Amino acid sequence: MHPENHPTRPEPRGVGSEELSVGASVWLPLDRLQGVIDALRADGMRVVGPQVAEGAVVYRDLERTSDLPLGWIDEQDGGRYRLTQQAEAGVFDHVVGPHSLKNFLFPSRDTIGRFLREDGTWKQLEDLPPEPPLAVLGVRACDLAGLAIQDRVFLGGEAVDPHYRRRRESLFLVAVNCRRAAATCFCHSTGCGPAVTGGFDLALTEFSGRFLCDIGSLRGAEMLAKAAAGSPLDRCTADEVQRARQQSAALEQAMHARREVPGEPRPRSMEMEGLRDLLFNNLEHARWDDVASRCLSCTNCTLVCPTCFCASVTEVADLSGDHVERERHWASCFTLDHARMHGESVRSSTASRYRQWLTHKLAGWIDQFGTSGCTGCGRCITWCPVGIDLTEEVAAIRDAPPPQEATP
Ligand code: SF4
Ligand code: SF4
What we know:
The protein is α+β, with helices and mostly antiparallel strands. The protein has helices spanning 30-42, 102-105, 141-155, 162-169, 187-190, 218-228, 238-257, 275-280, 287-292, 300-304, 350-369, 379-382, 390-399; strands spanning 14-15, 25-29, 46-53, 56-61, 72-77, 80-85, 109-118, 121-125, 134-139, 172-176, 202-207, 210-215, 233-234, 311-317, 323-330, 340-341, 344-345.
């Protein structure tokens, strides 16, 4: 369990709403977090946050802090996810569940166009279903990294995705610094966590029923000011801010050191150095067949991955044939159809499809987008029904002797 910190109660040092500014840190007790949720909702935003549902911690619409998963932790391992209650666990001591920001910005099924035939001519209708702006509470460092990666994919090139952009521009993020890591987490290897370092409106560090709240944007300051109206919040001292940073640093050190801690779950880590070349130089490695003998090609890993972005588009007509909806839905490189060209799939074996996924994620992505496609969130390990673990697969390729030169 995380090392619990008990900062001494601060002297009265309330800050009025006019003093809240970017870079400031204030104390936010749980009941004042409710004020932030209320302020966001009053501003017309849909607020979602982590909640226990369907046997996991998932994002759901959130109205009350009492719906947050206070006292729950998740135990994760290859192909395994269990929720347990712990008396000393806080509101955010679970880690990541199957949902990520991808579910909202790039939903699994999305209407992206509507068309009407009138007088024999098709015209595109502009009235896509209206959506309120979204606020997400409880976002972890790895998922902010995943968001930055998807931003490059959907917004960074010549072709900007208007549906992603519409949601992204109004997105409000309340991040959380993790106090514990699951056995499947390896964000310390990818450099994506566990500390939140930017890209948020507000960021929370939990301490015994209250939160040190860092203000990361003007919108964050505005929302906090609304929540603080009429009842000032306590400003954090430099020592208290330092203690919050140390809490994250201690977790990161523990993640690096877990290998030597007896009784801890088997640690994950991934050597990132030279990974691109390692994979591209081992396209014929025997490990691809080995993993294919276990892989079900079920697509789970791509569905839960916060950065996978492949999609297919279908058009559905009504019975009259005059109204057509264009729908985008998630696709996966683990399906035969994904690589169908000229009537045949060019990746007919599971080995070739797993290789495509892993080499794109960890190598090709670097050439395409200037970043690895992996944040170290561990979801693909947890939600793989047979527990295939990309950190193990990469290590097996790294540890194997280099391929023999072919004899002429
Ligand atoms: S590849 Fe796996 S560990 Fe990496 S970001 Fe995707 S789901 Fe997370
Ligand atoms: S690696 Fe696991 S989750 Fe991914 S397709 Fe294969 S069996 Fe499914």
